[in-house]
What we know:
- This protein has helices at residues 3-9, 31-40, 48-59, 71-83, 96-105, 107-118, 134-138, 143-146, and strands at 21-26, 43-47, 89-93, 127-132, 150-152.
- Helix 1 (3-9) packs parallel to helix 2, helix 4 (71-83) packs parallel to helix 6 (107-118) and helix 5 runs antiparallel to helix 6.
- It is of the alpha/beta class.
- Helix content is 48%, strand content 16%.
Amino acid sequence: MLTNDAINQLALDKVELRDRPYLLYTDKLSKTALHHLAFRYTADRLSYRDDLIKRHTSTSKSSYLNLQLHSSREVEAIKQICQNASKPIVLLEDLDILLTYLSIRANNQLNLFWRNLATTRQLACPLWILLPKTWATEMSGKESLWDIRVKFL
């Protein structure tokens, strides 16, 4: 199936629970395909990495991130990303950077973050988190947290 056909069949705008995050596992899409995905569903393509850099450089007095100590703060930052979105859907890229960081630093913090993210409510708009397909196998034991909120492209 062509990428454009697959994108058109995703129905990212037809979600049952509009206030909870969804996962979209995909291999690295080209910039053109990501642009088409955002255009097709009138979505903001936002980068967690860029948001983290902006938050860290503007508010932190420390030169260290120590994200493993602040997983709840990162969930709140993701909520804020949805709040500040200018379009009705958010496609969040680069969250795998945080997941990788947490898995290397402290595995129990990764589980806590993943559980907190899965149970997040009251988002301002539907949130689709784009992750590489390699994370699907890493998170396979936690699928019950995400139930029907996972798609593959």
